[in-house]
Amino acid sequence: MIKRTWNGFTLVEVLVALSIVAIALMAGSQAVSALMRHAQRQTDMILAQLCNENALVNIRLSQQMPDVGDSTATCEQAHRSLTVSLTVRPTPNPNFRRVDVQTQDGDTLIWRLTTIVGRY
Known about the structure:
Elements: H1 11-62, E1 69-77, E2 80-90, E3 96-105, E4 108-118
Antiparallel strand pairs: 1-2, 2-3, 3-4
């Protein structure tokens, strides 16, 4: 009688190995996707911060107390158009005004900044 030896893997072993590889690839793709979303969010925040700071610098350079009220402007940064909303409110002290600046991309609020501006 001739004894046969089989070299190789059984079907169950191959299927288990493939399922382990598939799970590892799914976890890796989710990690890459999360990193990409985080990088995009960081980019949005930096561009919005630049827009907000530019709006506040414009107020400071005018060397006048800003008028109380709301205004909206467009800010172009890195080939993107963001909306900057400026809200000026009085304070109990007439020498100061509260200024809220927020930047949006469409309906999504990206960055909000609040400061006090005084007389020059």
